[in-house]
Amino acid sequence: MRLATILPRASVEPVAVAAAPDGRWVELAGLTGRTVPRLEDSLAWMFAHNAYLAERAATWRGPRYQESGFVFLPPVVRPAALRDFDAFEAHVKTCRARRGLTLPPAWYELPVFHFANHHALVGHEASVCAPLGSHELDFGLALGVVIGRGGRDIPERSAWEHVAGLTIINDLTARDLEERELPVGLGPAKGKDFATAVGPWLVTCDALADRIAGDRVSLAMVARVNGRELARGDANSLYHPIPRLIAQAARDAELFPGDLLCTGTVGQGSILELGPENTGGWLKPGDVVELEIERLGLLRTRIVARPA
Fold first, then answer.
1. Is residue 308 part of a domain?
2. How many structural domains are present in the chain?
């Protein structure tokens, strides 16, 4: 099942919706009989009613939204927290090698994350500009995990039971700002603070059951800039699998419905790894970034000039 948050044109109020089989979208409030101003407000309830909701969406005779009549917001517009991991070995090794660094043994022992700006999420088709002073804007092809059932000290063996679904993340980064910040040792700050694109929707885990085996999920991942394919990978190349990320995030801490976890960028899924000399340079105004993950759809981000 696909779930999303939309902003109907000529409206200022977001609407939580579910996909109907005809390609249109139905308000979750109509399907559930509950007032759901935000998608995350119903994620825990929907865990027990996914099959019921899918059936209701297929037979719903009330109002439906067509995609021409709204814009996609991030599926979870304001998560309580956004944890950004770096769980793909190939990406981390290549990026560190470009800085003359090796991968420390501690990286293999446990997944590490930084808290990213959960108030700076943008949706599908959003326009993004480089932050002030940056001339090296990069995309990052990443997988997003949306928590549906909260918990604390969640063990790996039951971590999937807490996942509402998966989505696509463009982990945008200003590499020149990041380069100045990382030597301090506190992780990226203004290099990632300006925008993270998420969407267009989340796909519930029951719809991905045939791609989930144990702690692994197999989904092809592709990145294009201006229609040119630059990167291709698979979610099954995660060194630290999703259940391990969840267990680490929940260790001595409470996870809440709607919390968003980012896996970090897949190997070769950024300009930094590929080399700007091989990709036509860093992202610039007029560029269109398309990140596509099998079964999860396509997330498009438009790069624009910074306002005067």
1. no
2. 2
Smallest Cα–Cα separation from 141: which of 276, 79, 217, 232? Answer: 232
Put simply, whether the predicted model's pTM sits higher than 0.90 gets the answer yes
CATH of the domain at 277: 3.90.850.10
Q: Which domain, by its residues, includes 235?
A: 82-303
- How far, in Å, CA of 248 to CA of 290, rounded? 30
On whether both 229 and 278 belong to a single domain, the answer is: yes
**The total number of residues written for the chain in this structure:** 308
Integer angstrom CA distances of residue 185 from 139, 179, 180, 189, 303: 22, 11, 11, 11, 29
Last residue of a domain, one of 73, 92, 115: 73
Tell me if 52 is assigned to some domain: yes
Q: Which residues of 178-188 are buried (b: 16+ CB within 10 A; e: fewer)?
A: beebbeeeebb
Same domain, 67 and 108: no
Q: Residue 226: CB partners within 8 Å, gap ≥ 6?
A: 280, 287, 288
Q: What CA–CA distance (Å, rounded) separates 122 from 101?
A: 32
Determine the Cα–Cα distance for residues 225 and 289; give it in Å rounded to an integer. 5
Averages of pLDDT over runs of 10 residues in the chain (308 residues) are 92 90 86 73 73 75 87 95 96 88 92 95 98 96 96 97 96 94 81 96 94 97 98 97 98 96 96 95 98 98 94
Give first-to-last CA distance, the chain, whole Å: 42
